[in-house]
């Protein structure tokens, strides 16, 4: 029995089973086990023995041919042996014949398989090294030869550990030859193990290997096979894969971050949404409030789109125009508005019944149901107009009656003056021409007449001045109050010298005013301070204070002063606090002052303390226009009494 | 006494108020001015006098005055009309006018100015204002009385 090849057949993986089957089927006769070897012989012997017994037993029974027992037994044995031999030879020859036949076939087949295996071994990408039980190399394929650098003939019968020289990749320490483990343990190395294969010329190849024992069909250890492959490319692929994984993980990180952000965004959006919901609730509430307002307001409200179409309107709009809300919606405001009645914000609306309603509109841009829209608030100003008209006409009447009154005052005083002047003149004539005919008593009477006439004339003159103080005698123009004060002081110089008074004027502004009236104003106030002054050193100070929109000018004296309860009386015409004997005058001076100040749009007042002097102050607006104020005096601190002589 | 009195200057006083006429005459007297004073009492009379018409047709008796003292407030045709006439008539234009005014003098002055009037007296006419005015009028030859 011979193997078709002395070299062990090495196959990998699933081929092993097929090989074993083949071996079991075809090669079992070549490796006859001791049991099988002798079993036919025993069988033949037994048969032979049985035959011998069967032949000899009858002989044995015949007494005529009874040999000795020993001879008989020997004879039986000889026969049996011969029979057994013959049987065995027969069987064996048969079997051998058959075996030979099979051998021839199997050899043919095996050489084919071997060839195919060889081709397979050579052509597979893995290196294959097989060893015998001693660990000596029995076979290497081309890949293994290339990678190890050992030529096949040199490697043959060399220890596998020499040829398959591997070190640990990381530690660079020698790694034991896997065949040794396989041979000593009889187990395979299932896991692919990584290592650096050091070739004969010192080149390093990163490899992965595993190893398995070679067993014969009986399960006997025949050797080991090491299968390995270069993992450089794999490594590269792995590196790339790792890189890719790295990149992927980076991307992943980024994605995670992104997702985190999105999550945060989502959460924010969620909270926004919640806020929005809250806001919406609030909005709804405020909308309701607005709606209540919208409906409750007395002004007509229209919400218009860009084309002027009414999108919404309130109850007031319906009520005043006489349309239902349904009718109004869809109409344009142009249908309601009188085109020719527009003047600025004032328009004329026409109600359904043709009634014309004057309105004051306020237009603003709003958003309505998320669209740009226009809100028009129209206030019915019919009543206002009526009131305005009434006011205007009553103002007109007032102005007319004022003018009439003033004209009356002027004419009256003029006409009053004439007879008075004559009385004066003729009393004078009497005194001049007939003085010698009067006794002292008569002359005294004449003096009284002259005095009375003079006072009367003064009264009349003051009434005239007062009536003029309210009228626009001259247009308003810039007036330097410094020079005004100077002129007033000049006009009063005689009285100032008489009283040895001091008038101290701090710088005054320039105002838009009637110069003559300003002179009169200063003259009256300074004169007042002089008149009601019994101080040893009468002093009058004129000062200015800037009060944003006004100049406040004060004339302070150190005169007799007054009780504050009396001060309100002062600005009424012909009001006097003192007798003619104490202080002469008509009591018109301050009334004139008040009229002048009122005409200039200011106010006048007084701070005083009995015995400590008075401070008269007045304000003048800082104006730039020279428009003349209405005749109507503005109320001063003295109250809203009309400053008219009664 | 020797006086050269080539053409005695007459004074025309246009005044409706008797008391004022009286006072004016007294003032002239007391000022010792003795020029003849013709008195007319309204605007119409004043115009008649100046035109020598109606009651004043006699030119010898009523010659053109050398000075007119004119009250602007007159009944009927008032002083302003008279002034307009005087200032627009080439024959009368040269006669100096003195406006005699009252308490309402401001308006009168305004009106007078517009017509080239330079002289104003505020009533009552008295010695001092008469003298002041007369001496201010150019070419007014004063006839003084009682000068020996």
- Spatial strand order of the main sheet of chain B: 2-1-3-4-5
Most extensive protein-chain contact, per-chain counts: A-B, 11 and 10 residues
Number of helices of chain A: 17
**Structural class by secondary-structure content of chain A:** alpha+beta
Into which percent range does the helicity of residues of chain A fall?
40-55%
Question: Overview of this structure, please?
Answer:
- The complex is a heterodimer of chains A (646) and B (148).
- Helix content of chain A is 51%, strand content 19%.
- With 646 residues, chain A is α+β, with helices and mostly antiparallel strands.
- In chain A, helix 2 (34-61) packs antiparallel against helix 3.
- In chain B, strands 2-1-3-4-5 form a five-stranded parallel beta sheet, sandwiched between helices.
- In chain B, helix 1 packs across helix 5 and helix 2 (43-51) runs parallel beside helix 3 (79-88).
- The longest helix of chain B has 13 residues, at 18-30.
- In chain B, 33% of the residues are buried.
- The chains are: A alpha+beta (646), B alpha/beta (148).
- Chain A binds chain B through residues 413-414, 417-418, 421-422, 424-426, 429, 464, and chain B through 19-20, 23, 26, 102-104, 123-124, 126.
Q: How would you describe this structure in keywords?
A:
heterodimer; A: 646 residues; alpha+beta; six-stranded antiparallel beta sheet; 19% strand; disordered N terminus; disordered C terminus; B: 148 residues; alpha/beta; five-stranded parallel beta sheet; globular
